[in-house]
Write a structure and sequence with these properties.
Layout: H1 7-64, H2 69-81, H3 85-100, H4 104-114, H5 121-137, H6 141-149, H7 157-170, H8 174-185, H9 191-206
Protein name: Ancillary SecYEG translocon subunit
Keywords: Cell membrane, Chaperone, Membrane, Transmembrane, Transmembrane helix
Membrane topology: Single-pass type II membrane protein
Length: about 210
């Protein structure tokens, strides 16, 4: 490290420093400032996109209540063009419409497409649960078991084990079904669900 003996030496050192490093400093400053503005712009852009998506979702969802072919097509278009939580929510609505119509294959597709767009664990659990129920209704017991295995939250375990038990029973695995219903009763669940699990456990135990 240099030791400067007077102010002139210091001034000359500063001049030499900027002469040798000035361009790099300016470029670094531009990149740094640009990075800050770029980050702020990106955050603002994402917020604006999400707000626009929310508004479109509300509009399309309102139309979807009519059940018209046009509204369903608009909802499907929204799902394809959107890659956020609102797309996942729309997928849930489309799946419910398909279930009501008895179109289980369409419901399964809507839920499968919605799953990677779900941004929270709770929504992922909800989609996996509904997907498992649809798959079980289609007779796809193994797929239903795989879907409930992806449910992580403790608050969903009673419902998940209910579906898992039904799927195992569908496969002829009474012992597995009994274990699943028992595990469901040992998990958190509503009084109504506990009553259903108790009834199913008694039935499988006495069969």
């Amino acid at each position: 490290m240099e030791v400067y003996t007077n102010e002139n030496d210091q001034v000359e050192a500063v001049k030499r420093f900027f002469a040798n490093n000035g361009v790099a400093l300016v470029v670094g400053l531009v990149i740094g400032v640009g990075g800050v503005f770029g980050w702020n712009y990106w955050q603002s852009h994402k917020t604006n996109v999400l707000q626009e998506s929310a508004q479109k979702y509300e509009n399309v969802s309102a139309q979807l209540r009519s059940g018209s072919v046009q509204s369903i097509e608009a909802a499907q278009k929204f799902v394809v063009e959107t890659d956020d939580v609102y797309s996942a929510m729309m997928g849930l609505e489309l799946a419910q419409i398909s279930v009501d119509k008895g179109e289980l294959a369409n419901a399964e597709k809507a839920l499968t497409d919605a799953l990677p767009k779900a941004k929270t664990a709770d929504m992922q659990d909800l989609i996996n649960f509904r997907l498992a129920r649809v798959q079980l209704a289609e007779g796809k017991a193994d797929e239903a078991i795989a879907s409930v295995a992806n449910i992580k939250s403790q608050s969903w375990q009673a419902a998940a084990q209910d579906v898992r038990g039904d799927a195992l029973l569908h496969k002829g695995d009474k012992a597995g079904a009994k274990a699943a219903y028992t595990q469901g009763l040992e998990s958190e669940g509503s009084q109504a669900l506990r009553g259903i699990l108790t009834l199913k456990l008694n039935n499988v135990s006495n069969s």
